[in-house]
Each structure stands twice: as C-alpha cells, then as structure tokens.
Amino acid sequence: MLAIFRMTTLTASPWLVLLIATAMISSQPAAAQDRVDRVRQEREARDREADRRMERDRPERREIDDRPRDERFDWQQHEREMQMHRQHMERIATQARVASDEVLTASFALEHLPELVRNPQERREVVTDMLQQTDNPAIKRLLRMKLLEYSLHSDQRDEALEHLRALIVP
Questions:
Q1: How far apart are CA 118 and CA 14, in angstroms?
Q2: Signal sequence span per UniProt (predicted)?
C-alpha cells in the first residue's frame, strides 16, 4: 500500500490518491465488521459473567436490613463523634496557645480562682498577694482588674477607685 501511495503521489493528483486509498480500505469492510462484532460479543459475555459473580457474592439486601440496629452504621452518631473530636482538638489548641503566653495563663488561672477559693474576702487576699509577688506589668494590670471587679461586687467604692487609679496611672 505504501508503494502504491508513493507511486501515485508522484504521478497523480491528490484526488486520485484519496480515491485509491478509500478503495483499498473499503475492500475489507466485512472482515473488519466481523472482528468488531466478535470483540463486542466477547466483552458483553465477560460483563454478564462479572455481573453474575457479583450478584452471587453480594449479600441479600434483606440480610443487611435484618441486622440489629446497633450493628448498622449510624451516620448521625458518626457526625456527633466527629464534632466532639473537632471540639476536643480546638480545646487542645486553645490550651496550647494559653500555655505559651504568661498573661493568658494568668487570666485562665484567675477565671478558675472562684472554684478553688469560695470566700470572696480570701479570694481578694490571694489576688493581692499575687499582685505583690509578680514583676510582670501585664499580669499586674490583670490582677488589678480582677481586684477592681471584686471591689465593685462587694460595694467597696474606695478600694475600687484605688485600683482604677492604679490601672490608669501606674
């Protein structure tokens, strides 16, 4: 075919080359079509066999639905567990951020102080002792803010005013 193509391209027009190539290709359409049909039939037979094997190996739907409720996968329960996991991870990240900063750590500790020291007067004394012991100016301001809050709740205006002045004019 290549030899014919070379001979015709040198001596004939492109239309003649196209006509000869078409005639050569179309001279064997029946054999090509038979091969295509045979391949298609083989593929369909393989697919049918695979479908039969899958049907045979797959459990019946009613067998799946007959399982006890607690053995079925519960998507809502899974979603709740994922939400709890996300919240736990957020809490861990927040705790790590708080632990890496002195002021945030002091603030966290002051928020939990009422749980440890129930008496307001004792709480005020503990915070005053901490105020005298620390050298960090930010923590001192935080402790003064807490003392101001305690003084306002106990109607001690003079002490509250003193802490307010110390916050504004250090």
A1: 104
A2: 1-32
| Mean pLDDT score of the chain | 80
pLDDT digits (tens, 9 = 90+) for 70-117: 666 778 888 999 999 999 999 999 989 988 999 999 999 999 999 999
User: DSSP 3-state assignment of 27?
Assistant: coil
Q: What are the DSSP calls for 129-152, one per residue?
A: HHHHH---HHHHHHHHHHHHHHHH
The percent of residues in the chain predicted with pLDDT above 70, rounded, is 72
- How is residue 73 written in tokens? 């996968």
DSSP annotation of 68 reads: -
pLDDT of residue 36: 78
Determine whether 117 is exposed, middle or buried from the number of CB atoms within 10 Å of its CB (0-12, 13-18, 19+): middle
Amino acid at 154: S
Q: Find the radius of gyration of the CA atoms of the chain.
A: 43
Task: Provide the residue type at 5 as one letter.
Answer: F
| CA distance linking residue 142 with residue 103, whole number of Å | 8
